Amino acid sequence: MSGTPSRHHRAARSPSPEERRLIQGLRAEDPGSYGELLNCYGGRMLAVARRIMQNEDDAQDCVQEAFLQAFRKIDTFEERASLGSWLHRIVVNAALMKIRQRKRRKETPLEDHLCEFDAQGSRKTMAPELVTVMEGHLESLEIQAMIRQEIAALPTNFRNIILLRDIEEYDTGETATLLGLSLSSTKTRLHRARAALKIRVEKQLATNSAPGRKGI
Questions:
Q1: CB–CB of 68/114 below 8 Å?
Q2: Which residues are 117's β-sheet partners?
């Protein structure tokens, strides 16, 4: 995942003629352009907010706040990226800000999601047949849903770094900027979060492949 170019870099482009027309309408405070922006980008922005917030009401609030910010800041949009990429970053920032502001709930320490060891002190590893199961079903809806559930179960700080880096596909530098972290801290946190996610996925695959259980 870390070796592939960021989706945002691959999509980095100036606004299309259609987007420029919409931007001009927004800057002219045309009501029709406001409605068009909501219709064109509301759904995808809500999907991003849902992934980060894990709560429908909070996600809706983030999208509303993101659109308000976009309307206020449209005159400052420098058009060095597509309108969609600009809006994507605004809604991500709105979601992260909401998480920082709300009262922290008690969460399971990340260590509880990391490696387990047997009586001899060796790390418990996934059986070879489970590797085959995972590799053979990465495209299945069940596996995708299970991975989303396991990401959601991680502590907030680690869930968000995986969402930004591996789901939203910001590069490591962009992820660090969005989270307000140094590059080295981002790399360390990402490594630990991925390790915890891998352990959780292995456990689920082992459970689903156990005798008497219907496999995925």
A1: no
A2: 123
Contact 171, 11 (CB under 8 A): no
Report the distance separating Cα 212 and Cα 146, nearest Å.
20
Alpha helices in 79-208, H assignment, sequence order: 83-101, 128-136, 141-152, 156-162, 172-179, 183-208
| Cβ neighbours of 189 (radius 10 Å) | 21
Q: Provide DSSP, 78-98.
A: --SS-HHHHHHHHHHHHHHHH
Question: pTM value?
Answer: 0.66
Residue that is written with structure tokens 């891998």 in the block: 198
CATH 3.40.250.10 fits 7-101, yes or no: no
- From 84, 88, 7, select the one nearest 40 (Cα to Cα): 84
CATH number of 110-208: 1.10.10.10
**Domain boundaries, given as residue ranges, for the chain:** 7-101, 110-208
Q: Is residue 123 helix, strand or coil?
A: strand
Contact of 186 with 175, CB cutoff 8 Å: yes
**What are 109-143's pLDDT values in tens digits?**
544 444 443 444 444 444 343 344 444 445 567 77
Backbone angles phi, psi at 55, to 5 degrees: -155, 130
